[in-house]
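FIELD: query
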Amino acid sequence: MPNTKRRRLVASAVAVTLGATALAACGSSDDDSGTESGPVSLTYWTWTPGMDKVVDLWNKGPGKKARITVTVKKQASGDTLVTKILTAHKAGKAPDLVQAEYQALPTLVSNDALADIAKDVGDAKSKFADGVWQQTTLGTDAVYAVPQDIGPMMFYYRADLFEKYGLTVPATWEQFADTARELKKKAPDTDLTTFSANDSGLFAGLAQQAGARWWTTEGQKWKVGINDAATQKVADFWGGLVEEGVIDNQPMYTPAWNKALNTGQQIAWVSAVWAPGTLTTAAPDTKGKWAMAPLPQWNNSENVTGSWGGSSTAVTTDSAHKGAAAEFAAWLNTDGDALNALAKESGIYPASTSAQLSGAFMTPPDYFSTQADFYTLASEIAKTTAPSAWGPNVNVAYTTFNDAFGAAAKNKSDFSAALDTMQADTVADLKKQGFEVSE
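FIELD: result
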């Protein structure tokens, strides 16, 4: 791989994972900078439902908006979209705008697919928490995207069944384990929750909360720490509960999991702020019976959460109208009307701090109508999100997680071995791609 490309990504990673001072950016959107007088047509690849209705607000708006028309092209999400973007970019035909999950940004930046739009997004930085903004800058002076939604993690539980079984909402993970054991003694056919090996993002968020830094750098080399002490602690904790049999070991998002939530066979879920939408479908008969609390902590003195999900709006280097595209990206994720529409049409939880306690978020989700302070508490939890540390091959780490942890959960075997497999596969892939890796 070209040395300049590797150095750029390594520099970004240093800033992201170690909190280094801002480094010089590579590249910029030096074309139109939003100053074109003629009409501009932009294409936006996104998977967010209802985005076309939100974009209509822009297309029908006055002034500058009238000269910039945005067309939404619905796409698949996750690795599928990243691959499609990179394929299009190699041919010089990527769209003007793309929706990108935060963990995908280093991969896209390392392939020179995203433009630096720092000078074209105005005062957008002031609209977001520092930790959120950092994910789109990779810690440098560059800005590679504008944050759209975030997924701070929290603890959901059946308030009625906690009361029935005499359980206390756990404030620490030790108490969480004790609660699982207590419930199993009182109701042998009931589980507190499940460990699901079909969503690597959940495990990554739990490791993030514990202080994990999966990708860091040493000089000009990548260092992979997926089996670091923090992640090992998380793996041992959940593996121990599965082996002990005090929680379930089945995957989420299946008919069986839905039924377990809907019938009270499982009475809690470690999830993120977007959980109400999932519960509405998975457990419709239990509406109004759930409550939300902060994620359990590893120590009583801590107050930190992880992140599960979230995405941004980025401008590609192939766009002929980077300034106009950046102008739209900033509007989409900071304008009050746009954010209200995103909440209504797409069900997102906005990254913009001001939007988290306004508009659609003045009242709790309908499913949680009995918890009036739902979004107030969610906003406070969001402020405690731990820093992220992503690398250029998150997809490989996540795929290995699904395979290795899936087998370990099913067999109730050693989660540590699964973590080592995840580490080894990620390191091997980095080397295969031509990155220098510190052992």
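FIELD: remark
The chain has 17 helices and nine strands.
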